[in-house]
Write a structure and sequence with these properties.
Elements lengths: L3 E2 L5 E2 L7 E4 L7 H8 L9 E4 L2 E4 L6 E2 L5 H5 L1 E6 L9 H18 L8 E3 L15 H9 L11 H86 L4 H4 L1 H20 L8 H25 L8
Parallel strand pairs: 1-5, 3-7, 3-8, 4-7
Antiparallel strand pairs: 2-6, 4-5
Helix pairs in contact: 3-4
Amino acid sequence: MEIIWKGSPNFDSNRKPITMVVLHWFGMGTLEGANATFQKPSGTSAHYGISDTRVWQWVKEEHVAYHAGNYVVNQKSIGIEHDANPDKLLSEASYQTSGRLVAEICKRYNIPLDRTHIIKHSEVPRNTQCSGSIDIDKIIRIAKGETMPELIQIEKKDFEKLMMEAREKDKTIEGLNKETNVLKTSLEEKSGQITTQGSEIATLGKQVSAQKGLVTQSEKAYYLQGIELSEAKSKIKKLEKAEPIEAIKDPMRYVVSLVIGAVITWAYTQYPFLGQLGGDQQSVAAFLIGLAVKGLDKYQFETGSKVKLPF
């Protein structure tokens, strides 16, 4: 890189370790105009000035230049002016030249190539817009040797067409985002429904288990009833196999039973009014039958025979 020495009376030797680079723009004027300003005694100065591929130097790096408006910053920094202003963007050639110069300076003093150590003049505590539109990040990328995207020039009508297409795509994307949000909401609602249905299924499962328990209890009840029925059938069989009642086995008791039945039948035959007796009269008839029974008891006492009536 060719650097042209111009020199300036505005510097001193009260240098501190160099830890940063401060980037400026001319603001107004040209590289020649900046040179005229820096030649005036007791004025301002900078270490370097860049315009396209030209590089001029006014102060040696080992000396302090008056560029940042802050003497402490001046003591530990190198100032570089650029051919740009609010009405003039920095040219691509100037970007490339500045990136190469910054890379060399940072390499000499082990200064990190980042935005903490490569700063705009406006980032120094001072009310200024200096270096305004200059892309500091781009200069750092060039200094790092990173590949820059190739610039493509297109006509205005083509640019407007591309912008219209981009806006249409933005609308499409916005619509897709809305649909995505709707689907997301629907999915959340369905997830809630599934959770509710899961709870209902769990409840039904508990009810089924309870019903199974009732069925088991019913089965046990039927089993017990079956046992009782079996026992009842067994008792009936035993009764069927039992011997006839003693009144039938004992001829004497059988005869007495027939006699008593014949007497009662005779009484109702001879005296029909007995069937028409009222409550008191039937009591009298029952009394008479009772006398017959007592007579039977007397017979049992006198004969020593024990007679059981079949009623």
